[in-house]
Specification:
Length: 476
């Protein structure tokens, strides 16, 4: 491809960066990266009533967390209103647009009549060819595109294929409202042209907009960018994606403890594929990405699959890198700041690092990792879960009392030394290892599951381990 590829991600700042928007940003980013191009960011903030600074910040933060960088400074659409009006003046001068003085009441009557007759509601073109001398002096006009009424408008879509819309099905859309503000349809075309966008990659719900925007390009005498309308995302049940499926903001996935690289991998597979590859690095995704490999049918979002994939990434991530990601995520995880404070206060960060290999084997998210490490952050006396409490029978507590005495003499404190003591005591009293190890786990962690129990003893240290065993040996 000889041209320099320029894509853009253009969210409206009326809420968070939802998962569909994140996937659109990713596809634009991958396409640009795969061809040595650039991805620009445009904030479409023309809806002044709904656009907020908080939403803008959330979108920028979500993209940054996902690792989807953009080139240059973000472009804010509202700030370009004068340029949008300038383009309309050009169309008026060229006879490709006209002033429309239809009132709100007249427009409503058109809609009502169309509905009554079973027709789609469309503007009837009543001001399309009327002379300026008939213009009423008591109101400001809207400016409408003088769209072709015959023939057809064709969109050669890179994903959806050739899409043909009869021009009779498209009316003269408004370019400038009567108060002089540009419409979304106009602003998108002018901005994409001025920003040098070569490829517009967006959701298939914009496909009907593509025909209208193609007509605006023609009226301005500008080349039309190549377009690719990607499938929507549905829930696992095939219904439109909603919050119950996972239609949340990027920040919610950070709070749920997902790694950005795992989420990138998962989102890339929602609608795009490279053979049967399910797990791949970002570098591989860039190398392999081809917009022609994006399917037309809706993709299905499955939280369980995302969680399993995230678990794979956590196990595959080197411990030092996972530790860094965990620490960076703590401010966002439920209970994370409090856990960090307790780890700081107790000086158990090194213990956490030591337990990490065992902890990450049992966790699918950073939230589960934090939960698994709760034994390191919980204060005595430990809250014991009911299932673990059931292991602490009178006989088990007596065994823990005997074990406490023997472990007190252990020097140096080590996993191997502790294991030898536990095994020896179990043999002496004639019980299986589990009959002692399971109550010991309950005493040390308050749970039935944990990393290896001898690793837990080392992670907690001698003083804390003996104190916790003593608590349960005495029935505290």
């Amino acid at each position: 491809m000889s041209e320099t590829v320029v894509t853009r991600f253009a969210p409206s700042p009326t809420g968070f960066l939802h998962i569909g928007g994140a996937r659109t940003a990713l596809f634009n980013w991958l396409f640009a990266k795969s061809l040595g191009g650039t991805m620009l960011l445009r904030i479409e903030d023309t809806d002044r009533a709904r656009s907020t600074e908080a939403a803008i910040a959330a979108i920028l933060d979500g993209l940054t967390w996902l690792g989807l960088d953009w080139d240059g400074e973000p472009v804010f659409q509202f700030a370009r209103a004068a340029r949008h009006r300038e383009a309309v003046e050009q169309m008026l001068a060229d006879g490709r647009a006209y002033r429309c003085y239809a009132t709100a009441q007249e427009l409503e009557e058109m809609r009502s009549t169309a509905q009554a007759e079973g027709r789609p509601p469309r503007y009837d073109g009543r001001w399309r060819d009327r002379p300026a001398s008939e213009a009423p002096a008591d109101r400001q006009p809207a400016i409408r595109l003088k769209a072709p009424t015959e023939g057809e408008t064709v969109v050669d879509d890179l994903v959806q294929g050739r899409v043909v819309i009869p021009n009779k099905d498209l009316d003269d859309l408004v370019l400038l409202r009567s108060d002089g503000t540009p419409t979304y349809m106009l602003a998108v075309v002018v901005d994409d042209h001025d920003m040098g966008v070569t490829h517009v990659i967006r959701g298939v719900d914009h496909l009907t907009n593509a025909a209208r925007q193609t007509q605006i390009y023609a009226a301005l005498g500008w080349p039309v960018p190549k377009m690719a309308h990607i499938p929507l995302i549905h829930g696992p049940d095939g219904a439109k994606l909603s919050k119950r499926h996972g239609a949340l903001g990027a920040e919610a996935y950070r709070e749920m403890g997902f790694l950005p690289e795992a989420l990138r991998n998962y989102l890339a597979r929602l609608g795009w594929s490279h053979g049967d590859d399910e797990i791949f690095s970002t570098a591989q995704a860039i190398e392999w990405f081809d917009i022609g490999d994006v399917g037309r049918s809706a993709a299905r979002f499955d939280m369980a699959k995302l969680s399993n994939l995230n678990g794979h990434y956590m196990r595959a991530t080197p411990d030092n890198e996972l530790m860094a990601a965990f620490k960076a995520s703590l401010p966002y995880l439920p209970g994370g700041p409090e856990a960090a404070a307790r780890l700081d206060a107790t000086g158990r960060w090194s213990a956490f690092e030591g337990a990490l290999p065992g902890l990450k084997e049992r966790a699918k998210t950073l939230v589960e990792l934090l939960d698994g490490a709760r034994f390191l952050t919980d204060a005595r006396p430990l809250a014991v879960e009911p299932a673990a409490e059931a292991l602490l029978t009178p006989d088990a507590r007596a065994l823990l009392a005997s074990l406490h005495g023997r472990l007190t003499a252990l020097e140096p404190w080590s996993a191997a030394g502790a294991e030898e003591i536990v095994r020896t005591l179990a043999e002496e009293v004639g019980v299986k290892l589990g009959a002692l190890a399971q109550p010991l786990r309950a005493a040390l962690t308050g749970r039935k599951t944990s990393p290896g129990i001898f690793d837990v003893l080392v992670a907690l240290g001698k003083e804390e381990s003996l104190a916790r065993i003593a608590d349960q040996a005495s029935g505290a």
